Amino acid sequence: MKNEFQYRLLKAIGAKQISAAELSRMSGVNKVAISNYINGVYIPKQDKCYALAIALDVDPGWLMTGDEPRKTRNENAEDPPKTEEARILAKGIDKLPQEQREQALSVIKAMFAKYSNYFEKENDDEP
Amino acid sequence: MNPDFQRAATLAAETLIKYRIDSAPVSPLHILKKIPNVLVVSYEELSHEMGMDRKCVMDTFGEKNQDAFTSINMVNGKSQYLVTYNQKLSVNLAQRGLARELGHILLQHDGTKPEKVRNDEARCFAHHILVPRAMIHNIKATGIRLTTEVLGNLTGCYDLCLTCMRRQPPVHIDPELNRQVRDLFMPYIMNFFEFQKYARHKDGSALADFGNYLEGYEE
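^ Those are the sequences you sent over. The predicted structure of the assembly is below.
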């Protein structure tokens, strides 16, 4: 990881299960800029960071500095029951550093979310 | 826990029959696309969707997964598979990686078995589907020597894949399954060797020897 912000952003994107393009639409932040944040090229300024945090439903302070514990804005809301679990069956994945593993899982979760319609249409005939 | 090679090899034969694969190179991508709860994307598409560099995405999943890897998502008890593969590899390397991932999916690997066990099983499946043993028996029946060149031309699998195949433990596949696979591939084998007779070199070798071919052009 090039910077801690990149890690937090990917973690929040994975938790929200959206793609970079969707985040761009939701936050009003340019897609190229989001791509640069994800790739660790730049760190966003405060206004952009705030917009991203709101769109991702995470605490802006946590996203910006990582100091605050990560929490949803609506603290009273209970987490919905977990009905899905993603795993990567790749070689050596368990031996990767935890941050890298979480980043990989975030990417995968976002992809599953992106294509959820594709799976819903065709989930009758499992192997 | 030991790998179930028997099941992997049997499943490979059953898959060839189920999807009526009757010629080689066997295309695992073609089979993967027919399985409903499987989505296949290239590293290129994955990086595009995530707005990340392709290299950054590939680095994230580790150097051992540069050819292909599979992820599983269990939603309300139902499994969804996402296969990511490297479109920029040579055809035979991509084919080998995808065959292994097809093995993971058909063997219903969900991450509960140890990594080594599921990798061994998936690799066994891959070698049995790409180079069906029943097809090799068909070649033997023609009396033609089983060289790497013959097998490579027939199956699209070369060097690494064939070397690994030889290391696979022997397994017993139901004779009826073997017969069905042999019947499926027989027209393909006969066609292949008829063509080789037609293209026979004057020195009598059944297949073009690339070394000899190059010698003719040496200055």
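The longest strand of chain B covers residues 68-75. The interface with chain A takes residues 35-39, 41, 46, 49-53, 56-57, 60-62, 64-65, 69-76, 78-80, 82, 104-106, 108-111, 115, 118-119 of chain B (CB under 8 Å).

Shout if you want it in another format.
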